[in-house]
Design a protein that fits this description.
By secondary structure, the protein is of the alpha/beta class. The chain has a single domain, classed as Aldolase class I (TIM Barrel), CATH 3.20.20.70. It is 26% helix and 21% strand. The protein has an 8-stranded parallel β-sheet. It starts with 6 loop residues before the first strand and ends with a helix.
Amino acid sequence: MFAFKSKYFLIIENIKDFDFKKIKKINKFTVIYRNNSKIEDFDSLKRFRNTCRIKQVKFFIANDQKLATRLKADGIYISSFNKDLKFLNLRKKTFKIMGSAHNIREINQKNVQGCSEILLSKLFQVDYDKKTFLGVVKFNYYLHYSKKLIPLGGIKENNLNSLKNVNCTGFAILSEIKKKPAKIISRLF
């Protein structure tokens, strides 16, 4: 059994991490390109963006308004550390704004920034921080502050079924896409 959701957010740091051959569902996937270390070749990103359009996968760029505009991305993703309000002018365009948060203060900040969806981290225990994570009950409690929350963090192949108890429309995956991209994407169908 699996917890089916209407949206899946896949955060990638390298366009080679993502294989479009497994994508069969239309308008369910959103790819967030978040590469902080080295920017990919612009032509490669443009080809990747065009493939996203063909497969009807939404494509977001993290924290880079210029690159998102040049690639004609579907929107921009604002990380939790980014407190800038310059993204408010993007709402007038066709850009969608998505953000991430770790606590109620950051959720309120993302609401001020105009985010239509907020990825709330960490739902489950992660390898790099075994002490602080929300859990299903606390995440559902946070939904009282904002209905546009999407869980992120610690979501792995072995705990996907636990997402049935989370009251949300989708979920986001980061580390499992890097470790086992084929296995996790095949479980999303």
